[in-house]
Amino acid sequence: MERGTSYFGVRDPRHAEHDLDRFGDEGLDAVLHTFSERDQRYYQETMADLVAASHDRGQRVYVNPWGVGRVFGGEALSEFIGRNPDSRQRLSTGDRVPAACFNDPKFRGFMREWTRDAVDLGADVIFWDEPHWYVPGWDADPLPEGAWTCRCDACRERYEAEYDEAMPATETDRVVEFQEASLFDFLEEMMALVREEGAENAVCLLPGDSSEHGLTDWERLAASDHIDVFSTDPYWAAFDEEMESFVDEYTDRVVSLADEYDLESQIWIQGFALPDDPETPKKVERATEIAVEGGVDSVFMWGWDACRVISSIGTTDHDAVWNAYLDALPDE
Ligand SMILES: [Zn+2]
Questions:
Q1: Could you tell me what percentage of the chain is helix, strand and coil, using 3-state DSSP and rounding each to the nearest 5?
Q2: How many Å apart are CA 256 and CA 111, to the nearest integer?
């Protein structure tokens, strides 16, 4: 079973190598290196050095579009939406929101460049991390009642071409179906490109069945010709769920889908924004055990040292949380 962590916040290879050595000593054999818009713009060669340093240590390397366009997970900002305000998603009320639209041609072009650059770093796997339409609650933006995304020109044109009718202003079932199909189509295009460029694809879906949270039809994604690793992140504290049943349910779901479609299964363990509670490390340990016992091929923690270096989502007892994760991993 693969054992990994995400890694971010350090762009000095000398410092990073020290951390990567430690991950190896701690029994990890895979690392996800975040590749934000900033990294793409300013740190490409540095990032390639970090990826090579991981390979030198026998680690399988995942790379993700950290916060790119603000439509993937991650604590990173987007310059793309600042430079291309017309490529942002548009609410049904007409206002723009700070997230790029999956159907916008400029964003698609930008993402194709990002994808080529990400594979060029030497990545083994491109990790499509929580692709989602704009989620109002996440940024605490007050929105008009009933407003939804996206109703930009690109979406309206595609919708009309698909259904031979104007896109309605209310979020009908057909609109929801269109959102799902658009996101799926976007992923298919990017995953095909990854394969062409010589790497593999992992897709990490947010748990739950809300269309704004990403794809609801997991089976359709699992049946894609381009996916290699099916992943989800049942972050119980983030979603305010009961840990055991939540992690268990989603472990079962990815393991059975992966078995059915001959994919690798992966579960992410919450290592950020955990409650300041003496029970927290025990829960992390138990969550990891549930994933391992459930038969996943790969388990990761988000993120390294329980996000010690991101104060906004850090966890008070980060060392105990990190060690709880490591302790629950099986020996090689
Ligand atoms: Zn749109």
A1: 45, 15, 40
A2: 31
* C-alpha 91 – ligand 1 centre gap (Å): 9
Q: Are 332 and 281 in contact (CB under 8 A)?
A: no
Structure tokens at 313: 């989502």
CA dihedral 41, 7, 129, 78 (to 10 degrees): -30
In this structure, are residues 100 and 111 in contact, taking their beta carbons and an 8 Å threshold? no
What residues are neighbours of ligand 1 (ion), with CB under 5 Å? 101, 103, 150, 152, 155
CA of 228 to the centre of ligand 1 (A): 28
Distance from Cα 151 to the centre of ligand 1, integer Å: 5
Looking at residue 190, its amino acid is M
Amino acid, single-letter form, for residue 69: G
Six-digit token pair at 31? 């690392």
> At 306, which helix (H) or strand (E)?
none
Q: How far is the CA of 29 from the centre of ligand 1 (A)?
A: 39
Q: pLDDT tens digit string along 299-320?
A: 999 999 999 999 999 888 999 9
How does pLDDT run across 211-263, given as a tens digit for each residue? Answer: 667 899 999 999 999 999 999 999 999 999 999 999 999 999 999 999 999 99
Say which residues have a Cβ less than 8 Å from residue 276's Cβ, sequence separation at least 6.
Answer: 315, 316, 317
Q: 234 C-alpha to center of ligand 1: Å?
A: 28
Q: Residue 307 carries which side chain, given as an amino acid letter? A: C
Higher pLDDT, 191 or 141: 191
DSSP code at position 64 = E
CA–centroid distance, 227 to ligand 1, in Å, is 25
Residue 318 and residue 306 in contact, taking contact as beta carbons nearer than 8 Å: yes
CA 102 to chain CA centroid, nearest Å: 15
